Amino acid sequence: MPQLITTVEGVEIMRLDLKKPRTTLGRKRHNDIFLDNRVVSGEHCVFELDESCEVYVEDLGSTNGTHLNGRLMHSRERMRDKDAISIGNFQVQYVAGLEAKPRVSRDDTKTLPLNSMGFPSTSSVRQAALRVLNGTSVGLDVPITKTVTTFGQPGTAVMSISHRRDGYYAGCMGDCVPVLMNGVPLGNETRQLAHGDVLDLSGTQMEFRSAGL
What we know:
Blueprint: E1 3-8, E2 11-17, E3 22-26, E4 33-34, E5 45-49, E6 55-59, E7 67-68, E8 71-72, E9 77-78, E10 84-87, E11 90-95, H1 114-117, E12 128-132, E13 141-144, E14 148-153, E15 157-164, E16 167-172, E17 180-181, E18 184-185, E19 191-192, E20 198-201, E21 204-210
């Protein structure tokens, strides 16, 4: 199944299977790929999946434009495997076939009610976020809205944040460069996050932000 892999500063923040005829990207919350940053327009671009499983991308009249493989788009274009669009510091790569995802332990994948998970249209939307502290994306907030959210790239450093009934937990996945939490390696165990904790993923520092703080 085709996928869209969204990264910022090289850190993976989202994977999305392309199942619908239209998948939208933008700064407004109703978009399938929601990027809360001023460089992104409210309804920035759309990915269209046709009956033959071909994927097309089209800019929706955005303010800053959409770049496909480094060039500014002017019309609807078909995407090929590994093609990538860029919007500011964000990159969305198209993968024609499903790639293997990092393995997640059963301990990190407990089922939660919708309101606990912070899904759109529930009372707990955007309960938590990671705020980027360094690099060119300083101040960017990455919302955590899934039961398990993974960050990073296999082979370097991969971090998971799991949402459980009693809070959020961070863990390092696989044998890779250690993920640091407040300067201390996470190791093989998950640790509960508190507001203000700082995570270091291959040099990218991110502060955990709790709801309403």
